[in-house]
Amino acid sequence: GKPRTLADFKEKLVVISFGYTHCPDVCPTTLSDTAQAVTLLGKDAAKVQVLFVTVDPVRDTQTLLANYVPAFNPDFIGLYGDEAATAKVAREFRVFFQKQQGKSDQSYNVDHTAGSFVLDRSGNLRLSMRYGLEPENMAHDLRILLLE
Question: Can you give 53-82 as a three-state secondary structure string?
């Protein structure tokens, strides 16, 4: 419900995933695996902020995101922007997304980049995590960045 910038998360690692709440498989799997990885960090979990940026601002309202994203971990934040803002941030991260028409105006899917991005505590992009990376391996990589 309020504008966010990377400066809001200064001094934390930031994990950014792009997706949408109606996603049938990739997005819930990514959020679930990331939640497991963060849990594996123990007390260091407080040094990591996970952000989920919707690529479907038509259906993903702020209220829907506020309920969906924290269901995976209460500290995860869902981010919403209008279509222009969504396209702008996607371009900045070189994230692909494209609506695939369904049987009705509300039954479509959105093809999108499936990986996550990790920014260090200075806001520099340091890591791209592929979709399907095991939570243990995610936690390992995050621990290395936390040591810097």
Answer: EECCCCCCCHHHHHHHHHHCCCCCEEECCC
Q: What is the pTM of this model?
A: 0.92
Please, what is the angle between helix 26-40 and helix 135-146, to 10°? 50
DSSP 8-state assignment for residue 104: S
| Alpha helices in the chain, H assignment, sequence order | 26-40, 62-68, 83-92, 135-146
Q: State whether the Cα torsion 22-136-146-41 is positive or negative.
A: positive
Q: Are the C-beta atoms of residues 30 and 109 closer than 8 Å to each other?
A: no
pLDDT in tens, 90-124: 999 999 898 888 777 677 888 888 989 999 998 99
